[in-house]
Write a structure and sequence with these properties.
The complex is a heterodimer.
Chain A lengths: L23 H15 L6 E5 L14 E4 L5 H11 L4 E7 H7 L1 H10 L3 E7 L2 E2 L5 E2 L23 H8 L3 E6 L3 H13 L4 E6 L15 H11 E3 H5 L3 H4 L3 E8 L6 H19 L1
Helix pairs in contact in A: 1-6, 3-4, 4-5
Chain B lengths: L3 H9 L4 E5 H11 L4 E4 L6 H10 L6 E4 L3 H13 L4 E5 L1 H17 L3 E9 L5 E5 L4 H6 L8 E5 L2 H18 L2 E7 H5 L1 E5 H5 L2 E2 L2 E2 L28 E3 L13 H16 L2 H4 L2 E4 L6 E5 L2 H15 L4 E6 L1 E3 L3 H10 L2 E6 L4 H10 L4 E6 L8 H17 L1
Parallel strand pairs in B: 2-3, 2-4, 4-5, 5-8, 7-8, 14-15, 14-17, 17-18
Antiparallel strand pairs in B: 1-9, 5-6, 7-16, 10-11, 13-15
The chains are: A alpha/beta, B alpha/beta.
């Protein structure tokens, strides 16, 4: 079976490595539909993944793709964007790759407001290494490294990235694929650092130790817990407990983008430099 | 090609030579060699390289990035390198340790890159402003797995300039990261620096020509086809073991072949990569084998010893890895002692011993108190060796 999106895939690399019921393919699908709408150019689009289940998506996509080292995809991407400002640069990362080992790079990429779109697949677990707790595991979640329940608190990544300076912040779910596609499309169009948290499900490593069981139940849970940002504005903190605030959460189109600011500085310096020599 | 430093000299001062600091000379060498992408993180005693790049790169439209740490710095450089930019970073021991994983990635992905490590006393925070050569084996084996390494060592300000250029050339030609080591004193010393001096580089291992197609040399034949973003349509780049398509493979034969080829591209070109200078060739029973600041002391010790009636040979190594096996063995066959002064506890002496001990006695002279080895100390050690021999 072929689809219109096959042109963006290395079909010879398929089938993919993801388990049955995994949300990574659904998020990647949302990206592919967004890529088609945006008509992304294969030669000038760079997709950088780190290490982990979600980051593997880069290897299936027929763009310029980099499978970087664990946690550092955004640092690679920063170098690529600065060297080739004409590129559309997109980072695929996970909750371990992006929020744990790569957390420092995430906040600094936000601070710079560099024109990169970061899609963070959040499945609340380290899937590839066999089900260890992540910074996005919720309190009391059971995992192989929290066999008696997670004692730590988790991040709210959208609040974190907004506070750190990202100028486009959104959250979608694997369940609401159309919405996620729109959020990714708008994030790529946005000039500046775009952060999209894609809440995903891992029935294999998360689902087998935590309710609800099975991919379908996990997807329904994403649906049931979702509250749009608009609705959330009128709700109390108690009412929002355990909910996922979805949709566009924050957008600022007036903040200076880093590569452009750098370019303006270079032009100013070169004018002065040429003037004196 | 117009060299950057000559431009600077013309601009700033109407004189032939200028007092230049070692770290600054490294930055000027980088600019002259075509480095247009630098990402770094401040660390003593290397920061002046970064500061010079911050000042100069915008003038030529290059990219300068101060990243959030050394890991991000080298990863940004790899990103730049993957688009075809000539990229460089500079650091010292603690930062060099943080970069190790990414150095392995650059080796695996065949991303050219220059890393200057101005060494300070370690381990850990150690003594940030005291000279050391403690990172020699880290430069060789710091990243995990079997891998090749190209490691150069600078002994003075002019070396900092010339060897940074050499590092750029080797990185581009072999498509692999190249490390330039300097001990703190080499990075921070100021010496007379002139176009005349820096342009000529005549060594026993051969002359070095900086002018011809310098920073975009032909690739050695063992290099895999470069996967450059934006040039090679849409490549895939990975740190996984891959084949020539760039995609990962678990095929035992293909993966062994790929790793073997990474080694071979360096090992097959030792003649080109191993830079060294021999002084007083064949004229002593002792040869001092030295690099970095110790090589300067060795050259001075050679004159001092001559004055005192003891002929001494000096082998000054500018390339530490790949190991210059041929010259080490040639010298080992003709001398009774190889004396190896180092600002560490004999890291390189152990390497030389493996190559040379069947022909000669290899003696390590290590110092870790953060001071230099003086010519006097070397001559005393040489007389001691020669005297002992005579008494036998």
């Amino acid at each position: 079976m072929t689809s219109a999106l096959d042109r963006f895939l290395h079909t010879d690399r398929l089938p993919h490595i993801w388990c049955a019921g995994c949300g990574a393919g659904m998020v990647t699908g949302a990206f592919l539909r967004a890529a088609a709408k945006l008509d992304l150019h294969k030669d000038t689009t760079a997709i950088i993944g780190g290490i982990g289940c979600s980051s593997r998506a880069a290897g299936y996509l027929d763009f310029g793709t980099v499978h970087a080292i664990h946690g550092r995809a955004l640092a690679f991407a920063t170098g690529i964007k600065m060297a080739r400002p004409d590129f559309t640069v997109i980072v695929f990362t996970g909750d371990g790759d992006g929020a744990a080992i790569g957390g420092n790079h995430l906040i600094h990429a936000c601070r710079r407001n560099i024109d990169i779109t970061c899609i963070l697949f959040n499945n609340s677990i380290y899937g590839m290494t066999g089900g260890q707790a992540s910074p996005m595991s919720q309190e009391d979640d059971v995992s192989v490294t929290a066999p008696y329940g997670q004692a730590e608190r988790s991040f709210d990544l959208c609040r974190l990235t907004e506070a750190a300076g990202a100028t486009y912040v959104a959250r979608g779910t694997a369940y609401a694929g159309r919405e996620l596609e729109r959020l990714i499309r708008d994030g790529v169009r946005h000039k500046g650092f775009s952060f999209i948290e894609a809440v995903s499900q891992c029935p294999t490593e998360y689902g087998k130790r935590n309710p609800p069981k099975g991919a379908i139940a996990m997807l329904e849970d994403q649906r049931d817990r979702s509250v749009s940002a608009k609705e959330a504005a009128g709700m109390t903190p108690e009412e929002l407990e355990g909910k996922l605030i979805t949709g566009l959460i924050y957008k600022d189109e007036s903040a200076p983008e880093f590569q452009e600011s750098y370019q303006r500085m270079v032009e100013r310096v070169q004018q002065d430099f040429d003037g004196t020599s | 090609m117009e060299l950057w430093y000559t431009h600077l000299l013309r601009e700033k001062l109407d004189q032939d030579s200028l007092l230049v600091q070692g770290n600054r000379a490294s930055a000027l060498g980088a600019l002259d060699a075509g480095v247009r992408f630098f990402a770094g993180y401040p660390i003593t005693p290397s920061s002046e390289i970064m500061e010079t790049m911050a000042r100069e790169l915008p003038k030529v439209g290059g990219v300068f990035l101060q990243m959030e740490d050394e890991i991000a710095s080298i990863c940004a450089c790899i990103g730049g390198s993957l688009t075809g930019e000539i990229s460089m970073t500079a650091t010292s021991g603690p930062g060099f340790s943080l970069m190790q994983e990414a150095i392995g990635y650059a080796i695996m992905a065949e991303a050219p890159l220059v890393i200057v490590n101005v060494m300070r006393v370690g381990p850990s925070t150690g003594r940030p402003t005291a000279p050391s050569q403690g990172d020699v084996m880290q430069a060789r084996w710091g990243t995990h797995g079997d891998h090749p390494a190209i490691v150069l060592a600078a002994s003075n300000v002019v070396d900092m300039y010339r060897l940074t250029m050499a590092a750029v050339r080797f990185a581009q030609r072999f498509r692999t990261p190249v490390t330039l080591l300097a001990d703190e004193v080499v990075g921070h010393m100021r010496e007379s620096f002139s176009a005349e001096k820096a342009g000529r580089y005549r060594l026993s291992s051969g002359d070095f020509d900086f002018t011809e197609n310098y920073s975009r040399p032909d690739l050695v034949r063992e290099v895999h086809p470069p996967h450059q973003l934006g040039a090679f349509r849409h490549p895939h780049v990975t740190g996984l073991v891959h084949d020539e398509t760039g995609f990962p493979t678990n095929d035992p034969q293909k993966s062994a072949e790929f790793l073997r080829e990474l080694h071979d591209k360096v090992a097959h070109h030792r003649d080109e990569l191993c830079l060294y200078d021999v002084k007083n060739e064949g004229r002593g029973r002792v040869c001092i084998v030295a690099y970095g600041s110790c090589a300067r002391s060795a050259r001075a010790a050679m004159d001092l010893a001559q004055h005192e009636g003891i002929p001494v040979e000096v082998l000054h190594l500018y390339t530490l890895f790949p190991l210059p096996v041929e010259i080490l063995q040639r010298v080992a066959r003709r001398v009774e002692f190889m004396l190896i002064p180092e600002l560490n506890l004999g890291q390189y002496a152990r390497e030389v011993r493996k190559m040379a001990e069947q022909w000669t006695t290899v003696i390590s002279m290590g110092k870790i108190d953060g001071t230099l080895i003086t010519p006097r100390e070397l001559v005393d050690r040489v007389s001691d060796l020669v005297g002992k021999y005579e008494n036998v």
